[in-house]
Amino acid sequence: MRSYGEYCSLAKALDVVGDRWTLLIIRELALRGACRYTDLRNGLPGIATNLLAQRLRELEQADIVYREDAPPPVATTLFRLTPRGEELRPALEELTRWGVPLMHEQDPEDAVRSHWLSSAIDLMLTDRRPKRPPVTVELRIGDEPIVIQTVDGRVRTSLGPAPAPADLVLTGAERPVLGLVLGITDLAGAQALGVAYEGDPAVLDRLRVDR
Questions:
Q1: Domain with CATH 1.10.10.10 in the chain
Q2: What angle do CA 123, 126, 127 make, to 5 degrees?
Q3: Computed over its alpha carbons, how large is the radius of gyration of the chain?
Q4: pTM score, two decimals?
């Protein structure tokens, strides 16, 4: 682990979490909780096995990650965030919000995981009409569907198909679907980019970006 050699709190923080892949490892543990090594590999497409092992060792030494044995009958090691690691959540959330405008471009080679997108949606949207009956929107994008629900005046996301028929189902490429949900593009523009829908697109008016 290289050091900037500066007596500055930001530089000291970057000495610990500023290396390539480090924050993304922390992202996986923050979003998914306890992870096996294979879970981390699947959530970090492109990372070399030896580099992942090295980063995990460094994060353990920095008291950000710890390992534990899974309860029987599963014989495997799980990785979790320590309390010190959990303190990075607000920083991850602010970086996620800051990075959403950069997603207006999507490289065809970009890897996609639905849990990455779900976390951004969860942070960005609020319920514009919290006193009205709840609504459900299902996004069929990424490696598994994302369900957006209004619950007690708040917006919550989950992975997997909707447990009951959704008020609106959107299907298509990630960028135009997210653009429609986040209010970056309108329905006609999303349809021109291949987005299909079932149900009532007017329910999207219920959702707005929390600025």
A1: 9-87
A2: 150
A3: 19
A4: 0.91
